[in-house]
Amino acid sequence: MEILVFGIGGVGGYFGGRLAKAGYPVTMIARGKHLEAIRQHGLEVESINGNFKVSPKLVTDDLTEVSTPELVILAVKSWQIPEVAEQLKPVLGPETMVLPLQNGADNAEKLCEILPKKNVLAGLCHLISFVEKPGKIKHVSFEPRITFGETDNSKTNRINRLTDIFNRAEITNTNPENIQLEVWKKFLFIATISGIGGLTRVPIDKIRESDYLYRVMQQTAAEIKAVALAKNIPLDESHVQKAFEIINTQPAGTTASTQRDIMDGRPSELENFNGYIVKQGKELGVPTPVNEMIYECLRPMELKARTE
């Protein structure tokens, strides 16, 4: 299977590396010094599951060099999806599968606005890894896992084929009964901690220590659940409790990637997290005052980052 991995950061680098290690012809879209390092020396992955090094079939920043893939793994930020989808149009074939793995609740929907729906899958991943230096990915936590499915939750031959491919690449994977619910379960966790983290600029343990800030997180999560239910996503109180179990067990010093982007003055996924809940709340008649407060307080910084 010809595989294109668009974005060779922590997510794309790890999973793309695993697929290349398993012998699949993998093309990687990378940029700058990272691109040059992979071209010259291959991609190095340092992992808690064992280190390895691979040489992809092709690494480039030019899609005109790419042959039509059978699978595209999108590992860019959620706010980059519309632009990347437009870039992908010329290289997709009628049977190409496009699998988004970024955080956010509406990535598949955004892809379907630009690409043929038959090309689009829904997905997410669990993994903590990052680019340690050009040409090197460092995986530091979580058993890497891809969760994926058809957007209508049907069980198709191509889903079975993807399962076999991920198994061969030793990537833990799941095809759930309701992929939208799984997307929202992760979104609930990540959106609850990211905005308040960016606002307070402290790690999760410091936020937990404040009764007030902990209540803010609980209120943020309650609003997310209310919006999900209005969209017929069966997110319930048990999912909220599970999200807070994860929050409560995060090691001291933990920060979310969106929080780090905000703190470093880079464009972030704010619009796709708290901003998305605010916009959906207004469309659906669901009050979201806490998410709106977080969003509006961070929005000037986000606008500044995007103009710079």
TrEMBL record:
Domain called Ketopantoate reductase C-terminal: residue spans: 178-302
EC code(s) of this entry: 1.1.1.169
InterPro entries: 6-PGluconate_DH-like_C_sf, 6PGD_dom2, ApbA, KPA_reductase, KPR-Related, KPR_N, NAD(P)-bd_dom_sf
Keywords: NADP, Oxidoreductase, Pantothenate biosynthesis
Family the entry assigns: Belongs to the ketopantoate reductase family.
PANTHER family, A to Z: 2-DEHYDROPANTOATE 2-REDUCTASE, PROBABLE 2-DEHYDROPANTOATE 2-REDUCTASE
Role played: Catalyzes the NADPH-dependent reduction of ketopantoate into pantoic acid.
Chemical reaction(s) catalysed: (R)-pantoate + NADP(+) = 2-dehydropantoate + NADPH + H(+)
GO molecular function: 2-dehydropantoate 2-reductase activity
Domain of life: Bacteria
GO BP terms in the entry: pantothenate biosynthetic process
Keyword NADP attached: yes
Annotated pathway: Cofactor biosynthesis; (R)-pantothenate biosynthesis; (R)-pantoate from 3-methyl-2-oxobutanoate: step 2/2
Residue ranges annotated for the Ketopantoate reductase N-terminal domain, each copy included: 3-152
Record's GO cellular component terms: cytoplasm
Name of the protein described by the UniProt record: 2-dehydropantoate 2-reductase
